[in-house]
Amino acid sequence: MPTEILPDNTALRSGRRERALAHMAAHDLDVLVLGRSANVRYVTGARQLWVAGTRPFGPSCVLVRETGAIYLVSTWDEGVPDDIPHERLFGLTWNPMHLVDELKGIEGAATARRVGTDAMSPNFARLLPLAFPAADLVDGESAMRAARRIKTPDEVTALRAALKVAEDSLAAAVAELRPGVTKQQLSGVLLEAAAAKGVTTPSTQEVVWITSHHDGNSTVHEGDLVAFTVGVVAGGYIGEVGRTWSVGGAAHDGLYRRWEDLRARLIAACRPGAHGSDLIAAYEACGEPLPSMPVARGLGLGFDPPVITPDLPRTADAEVLEPGMVLTVTSCVWQEGSGTVIGRDAVLITADGPEVLTRRNDA
Amino acid sequence: MTTMDIPEAPDLARMRRDCGARLREAMAREGVDALIVLGSNHVAYAAGVSWPLGDSGLAHADRPVAVVVAGDEWPHLFMPFREGALPGAHLPEDHLHGPVYLEYDEGVRNFARLLADLIPHGAVVAVDECTGAMRREHKALFPGGPPRDALSVLSSAKVIKTPDELACIRRALRITERTMADIAEMVKPGVRQIDLSARFVRRAFEEGAQANLLEPIWQVMPDSRENGAWTTHGDLALPLLTTERELARGDVLWTDVSISYAGYCSDFGRTWIVGEDPTPAQRAQFRRWRTILSAVLDVTRPGASGADLTRAAIAAAATGGASGERPWLPHFYLGHGLGTGPAELPFVGTDLGDRFDEKQILEPGMVLVLEPIAWADGTGGYRSEEVLVITEEGWTALTDYPYDPYDPYDPYDSHDSNAD
Question: Is the pTM of this model over 0.90?
Answer without folding.
Answer: yes
